[in-house]
Specification:
This protein is mostly beta strands and about 450 residues long. It is about 10% helix and about 40% strand. The protein has two domains: about 160 residues, Rossmann fold (3-Layer(aba) Sandwich), CATH 3.40.50.10070; about 260 residues, Neuraminidase (6 Propeller). Helix 2 crosses helix 4. The longest helix has 17 residues. It is globular. The N terminus is likely disordered.
């Protein structure tokens, strides 16, 4: 078994509970041909898969939500010559290439059960031949722990076609405003599971880079806010030493998972601190906090710099500094007269941009700042939108929006502007998107 096959077979999953409502705000033009180019969404069909209905459904949805293809839903089978497409155009594989081309597809994905494994073939409909194939071993039920392995299979299909990473084998963590617990959900909106114990009120969830732990702030009856690190597999919880007698907020892991940066509140201001998250020790102060608030820190992908919010100049603006607290400087200033406070900055996975929310005429909207061009792009304008977090592919962002009347999670593809909603119960806050979990 190859490394890819082992990674897919070893993926994690969750119970299939929820669903996702798809809302397309903009669509790219479908162009026939399989040479993948950014901004082009080739037509793709997932062929009927007898006996693999659950896997077929998950893979088709994942490929659609990758926003790299125009996924065409089939209303009638045409797997062999003469079935729906007339004579001609049927290759040696028995696929009716001509018929699927008439639907606007240039790619077809075939899933076949093979002695406890899944054989995957990616067909080039124009050349009428198999472009890629692989065999993976996984639980074919499509429920429980097998879902993440199926998501990882979807990501491998995306990689084989485009050379780019997918985001199916990821999870999104968020705070439920009703019970103040942290919940997680698969990237497609299924597998909703509570993460923190019932009766424990928390805030500010953050993923470790490998997805094995989370950090959050526990709300105590005495007003203190200690930082807790929890192992997801076992549920084991450990309190960061030195945080039990203080008010702490917005913890964030370093890219290697060994350090944790957070904000500590005091009477004279809020300062940033860092600690050894691996050994739970060695808390050190990084910024001054006197008469200013410094919070919402996030490491750059290489771990060398930190972006954060500070009020040292009078309002909430976004600053950056080196990871040891030196070289502090204003990064994204106000657009005076039009915008207000900024919050929740997060570095893109490639280190090229910062996403954050900023008030526009008093209403928060999602913005992206390009570091090389020093240019800003506003992504949202409908209703209140806040708390953004990057997907590991660097082209999807999840955020909280009030556009339905209550706070819900939405995903935007920044290349096509396509938006979809994760249909979740209650009101949500503070989403955080994991790195890829397919090989864990």
């Amino acid at each position: 078994m190859s490394k890819v096959q082992r990674a897919i077979a070893f993926g994690l999953g969750a119970v299939l509970l929820g669903g996702v409502m798809d809302r397309a705000l903009a669509q790219d033009t479908v162009r026939v041909g399989i040479t993948y180019s950014p901004g082009v969404r080739p037509g793709l069909v997932v062929l009927p898969s007898p006996g693999l209905d659950s896997i077929h459904e998950i893979v088709q949805r994942d490929l659609d939500y990758s926003d790299r293809f125009e996924v065409i839903n089939l209303t009638q089978p045409a797997a062999t010559g003469g079935a729906g497409g007339g004579a001609g155009g049927t290759g040696t594989s028995g696929i009716n290439y001509a018929f699927y081309r008439t639907l606007g597809a240039s790619l077809a994905v075939e899933l076949v059960s093979a002695r406890g494994s899944i054989a995957v073939k990616i067909h080039d409909l124009a050349a009428e031949k198999v472009r890629n194939d692989l065999i993976v071993s996984l639980d074919q039920s499509g429920v429980g722990e097998s879902r993440m392995a199926i998501h990882a299979l979807s990501d491998e299909i995306v990689r084989l076609i485009t050379g780019q990473p997918g985001v199916a084998a990821t999870r999104i963590m968020f705070l439920n405003e009703g019970d103040k617990r942290i919940w997680q959900v698969d990237s497609d909106g299924a597998g909703l599971v509570a993460v923190t114990p019932a009766g424990l009120q928390v805030m500010s969830p953050s993923w470790s880079p490998d997805g094995s732990r989370i950090a959050y702030v526990q709300l105590s009856s005495d007003g203190k806010k200690p930082i807790v690190l929890q192992t997801l597999k076992t549920g084991a919880r450990a309190v960061l030493p030195g945080s039990t007698a203080s008010q702490n907020i917005t913890p964030s892991f370093s890219p290697d998972g060994r350090r944790l940066i957070f904000a500590r509140m005091a009477e004279d201001g809020t300062a940033l601190y860092a600690a050894n998250a691996a050994e739970l020790c060695c808390v050190e102060r990084l910024t001054g906090g006197r008469f200013a608030e410094n919070f919402s820190p996030a490491y750059s992908p290489d771990g060398r710099r930190v972006v954060f919010v500070s009020t040292r100049a009078g309002g909430q603006q976004i600053y950056s500094m080196t990871a040891d607290g030196t070289d502090q400087s204003l990064l994204i200033p106000f657009d005076y007269g039009r915008t207000g406070n900024s919050n929740a900055p997060e570095w893109s996975p490639d280190g090229a941009a910062i996403v954050f929310h900023r008030e526009v005429e008093g209403v928060p909207q999602i913005w992206v700042y390009n570091l090389s061009s020093r240019s800003l792009k506003q992504l949202t304008s409908l209703s209140r939108n806040e708390d953004p977090s990057w997907a590991p592919d660097g082209r999807h962002i999840i955020f909280v929006s009030h556009r339905t009347g209550r706070r819900q999670l939405f995903v935007v593809d920044i290349e096509s502007n396509r938006v979809r909603q994760l249909m979740l119960p209650g009101s949500t806050r503070l989403p955080a998107w994991s790195r890829s979990l397919g090989g864990r």
